[in-house]
Amino acid sequence: MSQIIFCCKLQKEAEAMKKQPFPGPLGEKIFKNISQKAWDMWLAHQTMLINEYRLNLIDPQARAFLHEEMEKYFFGNGSEKPVGFSPRE
C-alpha cells in the first residue's frame, strides 16, 4: 500500500514518492513534503525550462538555475514559464 502525505505543492493529501528524488537537504525536504504527482508536474516543467532556455546540464550555472527554480516551484511563489512560451497543442 502506498504512503499518503500532505503535499505542500498541491495542498492536499496525495501519494508519497517511493524514494528521495536526489541527494542533499532539498532532496530530503522534497521527499518529505511533496507528492509523486507534484514531482511529476515538476519534471514536465523542468523539461520545458531546459528546452526553452536551451540549458546544458553539464554547466554548473544551468544546474544551479534549475535547483533555484525547483525550490521556488515547490516552496516559493512558483517557477515562471519563459517569456513568450506557448505550449504545443
UniProtKB/TrEMBL annotation:
The keyword Amino-acid biosynthesis does not apply. GO terms for molecular function: iron ion binding. Coiled coil: none annotated. Gene3D superfamilies: Fe(II) trafficking protein YggX (1.10.3880.10). GO terms for cellular component: cytosol. GO terms for biological process: cellular response to oxidative stress. The keyword Iron applies. Keywords: Iron. Belongs to the Fe(2+)-trafficking protein family. Could be a mediator in iron transactions between iron acquisition and iron-requiring processes, such as synthesis and/or repair of Fe-S clusters in biosynthetic enzymes. PANTHER family: FE(2+)-TRAFFICKING PROTEIN-RELATED (PTHR36965). NCBIfam families: PRK05408.1. This is Probable Fe(2+)-trafficking protein. It comes from Legionella israelensis. The lineage of its organism: Bacteria, Pseudomonadati, Pseudomonadota, Gammaproteobacteria, Legionellales.
